[in-house]
Design brief:
alpha/beta, Nucleotidyltransferase, domain 5, Arc Repressor Mutant, subunit A, five-stranded mixed sheet, 9 helices, 15% strand
């Protein structure tokens, strides 16, 4: 049995992070290749949803959604890399595999793989690589499941928040001007950051300080 694990939403300031795993049998890599499965970022939203439906029908899969509140709480005791390793291993334990292909978030691929193995707690071959979602179809499949699940969560969040503040929420990433403006306007209107926001992110602290500073003058 082979398992591929990847995440979506590690960096955003709004919304959850989703970690997903896909389990395939030896030889089923060719099935994924024929499906033209690629890294989720290389597919359109419609293509991702179509592929996700097929992956769910054909292979064992699982995912974990970790809320912004939980990310903030856990970041007080561990780094994002440690959190990701913990989540990857928790997911990996759901069904034992002989080989795990994982997308390394650490600059040191080997270290990330070794820490994952320690957290996994049983013998298995670990292939930890940067850009694994491009290199291995089984990780690409996991990447698609993670991205589709996060997109669905973000759609719900956007619908809820935009009922109270009628401007675009954007992608949820700190680099997105629409997202930064949404957070800033929300703080100005309600005196606090929006629900589903990662308070521990520097962007949030900076925008909160800017609004407070503005009120002084």
């Amino acid at each position: 049995m082979i398992c591929g694990i990847d995440e979506a939403g590690r960096g955003p300031v709004i919304g959850p992070m989703v970690v997903a795993g896909v389990w395939i049998k030896e030889g089923e890599n060719d099935v994924l290749k024929k499906m033209a499965i690629k890294d989720s970022k290389k597919h359109t939203k419609k293509q991702r949803e179509k592929h996700a439906k097929k992956i769910r029908e054909m292979f064992f899969h699982s995912f974990i959604i970790i809320s912004p509140e939980d990310i903030d709480a856990l970041r007080s005791t561990m780094s994002m890399n440690e959190l990701e390793i913990h989540l990857f291993a928790t997911l990996g334990k759901k069904r034992e595999a002989d080989i795990y292909y994982i997308d390394s978030a650490d600059v040191d691929e080997k270290r990330f793989g070794e820490e994952f193995k320690k957290n996994l707690g049983f013998k298995a071959e670990i292939i930890s690589k940067h850009d694994a979602d491009n290199l291995f179809p089984v990780v690409s499949a996991a990447s698609i499941i993670a991205k589709v699940e996060r997109d669905a969560e973000m759609e719900k969040i956007a619908n809820m928040l935009q009922k109270k503040l009628d401007i675009p929420i954007g992608s949820g990433y700190p680099s997105d001007e629409k997202t930064r403006l949404f957070i800033k306007k929300w703080i100005e209107k309600f005196g606090d950051v929006p629900p589903y926001t990662r308070r521990s992110w520097k962007t949030v602290k900076k925008l909160t300080a800017e609004v407070k500073q503005k009120k002084l003058f």
